[in-house]
Task: inverse folding
């Protein structure tokens, strides 16, 4: 348990937000997207910790693509870019992003969300 706590302390997680144009796209503030995803940071780090446990050291950039629907839920969650290339890890990230909840929007918003996972 102590080793896992040390491992979690050594994980670096960085993320930025990018937008893809979509027809009839709703406007959503980038900081609002970051804020919602930041609330789930522990879950994302847990996905990465599990990966390190069974696959050893892996680092890389992943870009999650998803659509925020009018009601604030997400759909069409997918990996756009995946340098880590691990199916279990990708599925774990997908589950986290499928569970994101944003405020209501006047339309849908297409999001590309890059993240870098690495150990210190």
Result:
């Amino acid at each position: 348990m102590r080793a896992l706590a040390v491992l979690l302390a050594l994980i670096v997680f960085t993320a930025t937000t990018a937008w893809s144009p979509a027809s009839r796209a709703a406007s959503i503030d980038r900081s609002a997207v970051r804020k919602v995803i930041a609330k789930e940071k522990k879950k994302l780090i847990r996905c990465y910790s599990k990966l390190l446990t069974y696959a050893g050291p892996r680092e890389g950039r992943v870009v999650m693509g998803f659509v925020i629907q009018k009601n604030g839920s997400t759909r069409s969650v997918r990996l756009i870019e995946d340098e880590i290339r691990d199916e279990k890890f990708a599925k774990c990230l997908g589950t986290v992003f499928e569970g994101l909840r944003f405020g209501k929007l006047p339309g849908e918003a297409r999001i590309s969300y890059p993240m870098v996972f690495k150990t210190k």
Summary: Strands lie at 11-15, 18-19, 60-68, 74-82, 109-119. The chain has one domain: 2-119.
